Amino acid sequence: MQAPLFAADKNPPPIVTSVRPRTGSTDGATKVAILGDNFRAGDTVLIGGVMATNVQVTNSTRITAKTPAHAPGAVDVRVTDPDHQSGTLADGYTYKLGSGIAFAQVNFAAVARTVPSVSAPYTLAQSAHNLNIVVIGWNDATTTISSVTDSSGNSYAPADPVVRGKALSQAMYYAKDIVAAGAGANTVTVEFNQGASYPDLRIFEYAGLDTASPLDVTKGSSGNGFTARSGTVKTNFAKELVFASDTADTRAPGPGYVPIILTHFLDMAEHRIASEKGTFNPTFALYGPTNWVMQAATFKAAGQ
User: Fold this and answer.
1) Tens of pLDDT along 244-264?
2) Which residues of the chain, if any, have pLDDT below 50?
3) Is residue 249 within 8 Å of residue 290, measured between CB atoms?
């Protein structure tokens, strides 16, 4: 039988043998070197299932990248080439919870139909006095949120007014000074006044933030194009979490921001940990031009 045409020209799949350093903060943005073989231009990197940023293929045996944010624990490191071939190093990198402001965990629920409510659990144990952030996006501009609750009884407040776009909406809520909960014991539920179309719920936990009045400034916007922009936020404290999320067909985080999650509906969240007061303009790169809605919020560290 005749061999497939061009079979001899096919590049071998990437091989991942090690990562240096092997550990880093859950906040992400750690520069790592991924070592192996058969690397080539156009390779992409997933660390714990989330895209790495600043990926540079140095040569066929070395890639440098910056880690995304991730929950604590050991995760797989995967390199995928332009031919969609991949190589994975199981448990190749370990995330450790840092001091100060620190990312703890994320989960999401994306529902491909119209529903009156949507829920998602925190899969890891939750620590007392941490901060929960809830983002919910959906594909209409009329439905409103009736309530945001969780099974631990934490109290949620809106971080920013609901942002409306063309057949899109997004809301952001937060719960300060949360109570401790076991792994999988706390489920967040968002209820609507009517059926919401294709809701995408994202839930986050952070440590090291003020327990009395953590929220500083917020901004929301909507539009159409290749870039989603929340608008400018100017922080009032030296140490803050700058957090942003969108509802759109998202390709990548904005420059200087660390990706946290990309959901099945291609909605993304990103953050950066600011060490001084400043003006920030979070963005997302989109598969566009496309309609988008986006919000940003900053939360101050404890002790300020």
Assistant:
1) 999 999 999 999 999 999 999
2) 1-3, 5-8
3) yes
Inter-CA distances, 280 with 111, 187, 229, 283, Å: 32, 32, 11, 10
Are 93 and 77 contacting, i.e. CB atoms less than 8 angstroms apart?
A: yes
pLDDT tens-digit profile of 176-197? 999 999 999 999 999 999 999 9
Q: Domain extents for the chain?
A: 14-96, 102-300
Rounded to whole angstroms, the Cα distance separating 250 from 239 reads: 28
Q: Which amino acid is at 53?
A: T
> 294: Cβ–Cβ under 8 A, 6 or more apart, which residues?
163, 170, 220, 221, 222, 228, 229, 230, 244, 245, 246, 247, 248, 282, 284
Q: Across-strand partners of 23?
A: 94
pLDDT, tens digit, for every residue of 125-172? 999 999 999 999 999 999 999 999 999 999 999 999 999 999 999 999
Phi, psi torsion values for 9, nearest 5 degrees = -90, -5
Task: Identify which of 131, 135, 73 has the alpha carbon closest to the alpha carbon of residue 110.
Answer: 135
Q: What is the 3-state secondary structure (H, E, C) of 18-37?
A: EEECCEEECCCCCEEEEEEE
Residue 21: which of 130, 116, 103, 96 has the closest Cα?
A: 96
Task: Could you please state the CATH topology (level 3) that the domain comprising 14-96 is classified under.
Answer: Immunoglobulin-like (2.60.40)
